């Protein structure tokens, strides 16, 4: 039967397990005879080099590269993977030591040693690629290789979140022979040590993964090969699922397609797995812009935007309204924007503008990417335009670009206001604040805020018990609400649709909701 009420296993304390069982009988043949499991997603990689990626490319990296730490199925905190063991060796959380597994090799047979790990980390900082993950390593002072298997990370300041950073695909271990120390790899090859080898790759179309026979790690692969197909939109992806051209959908299911899959006339050969997500959508205001740079304008926008209508009308309640940059389910979540602004109120927004001497409609151009974050993005921005213009306080122009050129634009400061989505690097409030503040951040828009970067984040990172840092993050969010440089819109729910012949979907997402495709398999009989 069609399972409409399935939900994901706990994802980093975000969602609880609730998996309904059913029964079905399939062929008793070898599942491998049916060929690779085919996964569809609308999130194509922007690069194959980990030193250049702080985005959805990680979804591929998790399966073809290996990190010192990662998340075994069911884990909510990082555990050794390429490492045999890792730990802080001092009481101040400033020296972190890892010992590698013995006998590790890359997929081409080259040995993985401590120097290879040091090389992999050092090149991220040396290259400092635009849109790359160098900002994740802000607390790192230096990496030391001791012998063949011991790596020591010396931190500038205490950072209890550093193990989470090491578990991100940005810190994938790469072969020094193939990845230059001071430049990105230029060909389309990959030399990693993950559960799979990238057998072939067609940019924007598909990636073919086959079992890496040299892999040594915790992943228990339940299949021999996976093909990932990249789609431009949800409708085409779901059509391929219904036609049995793909077996699983991952990122990018549109609200209308989710609703259709949940409906009374839903296809009984498909399953839909649902759970709370950790991804958020938000607006970014450029402080260098004539209008977006004015606090009163930003706060007036915050006073007008109707998140509940967006969640219901545009996303059919497949997302929840979000009133802080830290989503529900993460320690430190608040409802700061609702507490300060309450329900949408154009009259209050008019007062905010008038206090700053603004009496005429404010011209703003809102930018968004037209090939990322799902099919509803364009409709979302049309709804924002409608809400803001109906208040009589704004004149809105909408502009869009494909992701690659969109990124170039916001990194150059070209956009007054632009939309972004965020899938967490790791499940901690730190990762919903730290990436967006400081001179170097994930947005390419400097946001110097010394109270956050110089006091609250450093203090919270001295605390190993992450449940004890709630007050610091609540204070940080009060500052974000006051500045209104970042305007949260919604928090996603996680949906994965799959053929009913596929098993393991409910186990396949790590705490950052990245798919571990090795958990997927074809059912024989159950």
TrEMBL record:
Predominant location: other
Subcellular location field: Cell envelope
Keywords: Signal, Transport
Nucleotide-binding listed as a keyword: no
Record Pfam families: SBP_bac_5 (PF00496)
Signal peptide: 1-27
Residue intervals of the Solute-binding protein family domain: 78-442
Gene3D superfamilies: Dipeptide-binding Protein, Domain 3, Periplasmic binding protein-like II
Family according to the record: Belongs to the bacterial solute-binding protein 5 family.
Entry-linked PANTHER family: PERIPLASMIC BINDING COMPONENT OF ABC TRANSPORTER, PERIPLASMIC OLIGOPEPTIDE-BINDING PROTEIN-RELATED
UniProt name for this protein: ABC transporter substrate-binding protein
Annotated organism of origin: Streptomyces cinereospinus
């Amino acid at each position: 039967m069609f399972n409409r009420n399935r939900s994901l296993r706990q994802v980093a304390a975000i969602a609880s397990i609730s998996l309904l069982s059913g029964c079905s009988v399939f062929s008793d043949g070898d599942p491998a005879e049916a060929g690779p499991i085919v996964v569809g997603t609308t999130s194509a990689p922007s690069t194959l080099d980990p030193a250049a990626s702080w985005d959805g490319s990680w979804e591929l990296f998790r399966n073809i590269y290996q990190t010192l730490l990662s998340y075994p199925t069911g884990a909510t905190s990082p555990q050794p993977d390429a490492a045999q063991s890792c730990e802080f060796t001092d009481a101040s959380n400033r020296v972190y030591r890892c010992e590698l597994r013995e006998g590790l090799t890359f997929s081409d047979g080259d040995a993985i040693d401590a120097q290879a790990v040091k090389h992999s980390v050092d090149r991220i900082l040396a290259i400092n690629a635009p849109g790359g993950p160098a900002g994740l390593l802000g607390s790192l002072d230096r990496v030391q290789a001791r012998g063949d298997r011991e790596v020591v990370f010396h931190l500038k300041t205490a950072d209890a979140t550093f193990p989470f950073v090491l578990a991100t695909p940005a810190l994938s271990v790469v072969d020094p022979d193939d990845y230059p120390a001071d430049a990105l790899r230029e060909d389309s090859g990959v030399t990693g040590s993950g559960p799979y080898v990238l057998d072939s790759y067609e940019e924007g179309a598909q990636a073919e993964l086959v079992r890496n026979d040299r892999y040594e790690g915790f992943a228990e692969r339940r299949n021999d090969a996976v093909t990932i197909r990249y789609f431009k939109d949800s409708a085409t992806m779901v059509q391929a699922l219904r036609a049995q051209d793909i077996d699983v959908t991952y990122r990018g299911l549109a609200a209308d397609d989710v609703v259709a899959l949940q409906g009374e006339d839903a296809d009984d050969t498909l399953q839909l797995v649902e759970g709370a997500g950790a991804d958020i959508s938000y607006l970014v205001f450029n402080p260098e812009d004539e209008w977006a740079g004015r606090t009163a304008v930003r706060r007036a926008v915050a006073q007008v935007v109707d998140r509940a209508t967006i969640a219901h009308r545009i996303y059919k309640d497949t997302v929840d309204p979000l009133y802080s940059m830290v989503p529900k389910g993460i320690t430190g979540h608040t409802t700061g924007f609702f507490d300060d602004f309450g329900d949408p109120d154009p009259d209050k927004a008019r007062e905010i503008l008038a206090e700053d001497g603004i009496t005429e409609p404010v011209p703003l151009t809102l930018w968004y990417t037209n090939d990322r974050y799902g099919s509803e993005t364009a409709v979302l921005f049309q709804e924002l335009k409608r809400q803001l213009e109906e208040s009589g306080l704004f004149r809105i122009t909408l502009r869009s670009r494909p992701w690659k050129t969109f990124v170039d634009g916001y990194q150059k400061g070209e956009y007054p206001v632009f939309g972004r989505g965020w899938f967490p690097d790791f499940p901690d409030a730190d990762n919903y604040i730290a990436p967006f503040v400081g001179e170097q951040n994930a947005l390419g828009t400097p946001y110097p805020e010394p109270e956050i970067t110089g006091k609250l984040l450093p203090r919270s990172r001295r605390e190993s018990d992450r449940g004890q840092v709630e007050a610091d993050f609540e204070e940080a969010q009060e500052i974000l609400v006051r500045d209104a440089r970042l305007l949260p819109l919604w928090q996603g729910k996680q949906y994965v649709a799959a053929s009913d012949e596929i098993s393991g979907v409910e186990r396949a997402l790590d705490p950052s909701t990245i798919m571990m495709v090795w958990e997927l398999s074809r059912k024989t009989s159950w």
